[in-house]
Design a protein that fits this description.
Pfam families: Fapy_DNA_glyco (PF01149), H2TH (PF06831), zf-FPG_IleRS (PF06827). By secondary structure, the chain is an alpha+beta fold. It folds into 2 domains: about 130 residues, Alpha-Beta Barrel (N-terminal domain of MutM-like DNA repair proteins); about 130 residues, Helicase, Ruva Protein, domain 3, CATH 1.10.8.50. It contains 8 helices and 10 strands. It is elongated, with a radius of gyration of 20 Å.
Length: about 280
């Protein structure tokens, strides 16, 4: 799933390559991805791309005051092309959801792999008209230590779940929360509002270091290389069974019905392995 660093990099890419270009045509290939009808998508045709921004994990393309807002969900992606095919795509075939043609022949495709579709595209007058943006908590990179403490003060759930709840903190998903917790040497199952002062210090530092580093590595990359760049920077996420780069212990995993997360028992849980059962805290 694209998270804060990758969406920031995509916004940077569009600012570099799309701003100043006119939208010549939009081809809708997956009606299910289109979440708004007023303004219509055709209202973007003939208008200029004037900016690109990010709200949490939402990508916001400013088109002369209208906003093309994109949420890539778990398996969505933006694929840039210097020369798009001129023939309209056939709806309902393949991963393509939307194609945006610019006046110089370049543009981008929004695609989504797999059968479970979650990619969402909106055309709105104000980004806050998108329900997911209206509900966002503060951006993860905007929080210093004291602000983070305030955000967590009334969060009694597990720390892993809190970090990935976009209503609490915007921008962090499954992968970077694994990396942040590993850097901070904190258990994913710690209670969010019961961290000590030292643990809060470590968590705030980890969020800043991990996300800032990931943004630095991602921005300037072409869209086609961002996924590989993200994987290459991971120390624990998706590395089940491999040695921890800090202590050498074997990276462990907790699996749920539709996702999993990884952690180091030595670095994060005092050598104890977390149970895969949702209601258990630690194996006895």
């Amino acid at each position: 799933m694209p998270e804060l660093p990758e969406v920031e990099a995509l916004a940077h890419h569009l600012r570099e390559y799309a701003v100043g270009r006119v939208i010549a045509r939009l081809d809708v290939a997956a009606i299910s991805a289109i979440k708004t009808f007023d303004p219509p998508f055709t209202a973007l045709q003939g208008l200029s791309v004037t900016g690109a921004d990010r709200h949490g994990k939402f990508l916001d393309v400013d088109v002369d005051g209208l906003h093309l807002v994109i949420h890539l969900a778990r398996a969505g992606w933006l694929r840039w092309s210097d020369e798009l095919p001129k023939a309209p795509p056939k709806p309902g075939r393949g991963p393509l959801a939307l194609r945006v043609h610019l006046d110089d022949g370049s543009g981008f495709d929004l695609t989504e792999a797999g059968t479970k579709k979650g990619l969402a595209v909106y055309v709105v007058r104000d980004p806050r008209d998108v329900p997911g943006i209206a509900r966002l908590g503060p951006d993860a990179l905007s929080l210093d230590r004291d602000a983070l403490a305030g955000v967590l003060a009334d969060q009694g759930g597990r720390l892993k779940n809190t970090l990935t709840d976009q209503r609490v903190i915007a921008g962090i998903g499954n992968a970077y929360s694994d990396e942040i917790l590993h850097y901070a040497k904190l258990s994913p199952f710690k209670t969010a509002n019961k961290l000590t002062d030292d643990e809060l210090d470590r968590l705030a530092e980890a969020m800043n270091v991990i996300l800032t580093d990931a943004v630095g590595r991602s921005v300037g990359q072409k869209a086609a290389t961002l996924k590989a760049e993200k994987r290459s920077g991971m120390r624990v996420h998706a590395r089940t069974g491999m040695p921890c780069p800090v202590c050498g212990d074997t990276i462990a995993e907790v699996s749920f019905a539709d996702k999993s997360f990884q952690y180091c028992p030595t670095c994060q849980t005092g050598g104890k392995r977390l149970s895969d059962r949702r209601m258990d805290r630690l194996l006895k």
